[in-house]
């Protein structure tokens, strides 16, 4: 049996548009009570920041991070995803594969630390101009707002607006299967125009990320999202995932 919503994770066009529309209309018909609150996320321990801000490990071909992916509402296992640096230059390309989910869209940074193609959303998004992937200053209290537009990966020609506020929380120590790390925790609050339905309103997403400078990547990334359907009360939720680091090199 396939993992829940595997086809949505695989590629944006894995399901034909009529099927996607039908599924979304079915979801819209569900009672608002079907939307539950996410389970409590990982807990880090607040620690003092380093005397000198550590650099983010630069990318090299062959670097690799392996994550388990779980549903944040029920903790059900979704799959294992391996992310590997396959090209470094003006553009950094990270290939992503999964034994259960199959080939996945690549992550593209241009340059390192700014995201052009973010495959962690469903569908994957490709921004008009690069957006910071983590705070430009690793200090508590830092924040910034970004406005951009995006296309759906592999479906060029239509632009949708995207607004994000990134805010730094501070240094935390957190333990995951890959080990114990001193991380910099930050959050993203995103308001965006959905590509799916013209009557899908007030689409919002939230992320909490624990970035470990020593590995050049996050050890935990947790995302949640909700939206409204026109002429219906209540809130519908998107797929809500949590990535947890299993190993790295």
Notes on the protein architecture:
A hairpin with a 4-residue loop joins strand 3 and strand 4 (92-97). A twelve-stranded antiparallel beta barrel has the order 2-3-4-5-6-7-8-9-10-11-12-14. It has two helices and 14 strands. It is globular, with a radius of gyration of 18 Å. It is mainly β and 249 residues long.
Summarize the structure.
The chain is mainly beta. It contains 2 helices and 14 strands, in the order H-H-E-E-E-E-E-E-E-E-E-E-E-E-E-E.
Q: Please report the distance between the alpha carbons of the first and last residues.
A: 32 Å
Q: Write down the Rg.
A: 18 Å
- What structural class should be given to the helix and strand makeup? mainly beta
> Shape, please?
globular
Characterize the main sheet: 12 strands, antiparallel, barrel
How many distinct beta strands? 14
- Number of helical regions: 2
Instruction: Determine the mean pLDDT.
Output: 85
Order of helices and strands: HHEEEEEEEEEEEEEE
Spans where pLDDT lies below 50 across 5 or more residues: 1-35
Which percent bin holds the helix content?
Answer: under 10%
Strand order within the widest sheet? 2-3-4-5-6-7-8-9-10-11-12-14
Strand content: over 45%
Topology:
Elements: H1 6-10, H2 17-28, E1 45-46, E2 64-71, E3 77-87, E4 92-97, E5 104-109, E6 114-118, E7 125-132, E8 143-152, E9 155-176, E10 179-192, E11 200-212, E12 217-229, E13 236-237, E14 241-248
Antiparallel strand pairs: 1-9, 2-3, 2-14, 3-4, 4-5, 5-6, 6-7, 7-8, 8-9, 9-10, 10-11, 11-12, 12-13, 12-14
């Amino acid at each position: 049996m396939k993992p829940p919503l595997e086809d949505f994770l695989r590629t944006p066009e894995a399901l034909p548009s009529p099927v996607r529309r039908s599924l979304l209309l079915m979801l819209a018909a569900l009672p608002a009570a079907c939307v539950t609150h996410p389970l409590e996320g990982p807990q880090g321990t607040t620690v003092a920041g380093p005397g000198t801000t550590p650099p983010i490990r630069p990318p090299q071909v062959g670097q690799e991070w392996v994550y388990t992916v779980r549903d944040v509402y029920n903790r059900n296992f979704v799959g294992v995803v391996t992310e590997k640096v396959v090209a470094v230059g003006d553009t950094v390309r990270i290939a992503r594969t999964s034994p259960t989910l199959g080939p996945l869209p690549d992550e593209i940074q241009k340059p390192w630390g700014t995201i052009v193609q973010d495959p962690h959303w469903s569908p994957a998004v490709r921004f008009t101009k690069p957006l910071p992937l983590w705070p430009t200053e690793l200090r508590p209290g830092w924040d910034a707002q970004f406005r951009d537009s995006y296309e759906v990966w592999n479906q060029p020609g239509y632009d949708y607006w995207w607004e994000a506020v990134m805010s730094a929380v501070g240094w935390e120590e957190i333990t995951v299967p890959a080990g114990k790390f001193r991380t910099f925790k930050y959050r993203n609050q995103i308001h965006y125009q959905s590509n799916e339905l013209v009557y899908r309103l007030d689409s919002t997403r939230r992320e909490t990320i624990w970035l470990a400078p020593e590995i050049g990547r996050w050890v935990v990334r947790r995302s949640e999202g909700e939206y409204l359907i026109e002429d219906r009360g209540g809130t519908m939720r998107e797929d809500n995932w949590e990535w947890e680091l299993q190993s790295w090199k």
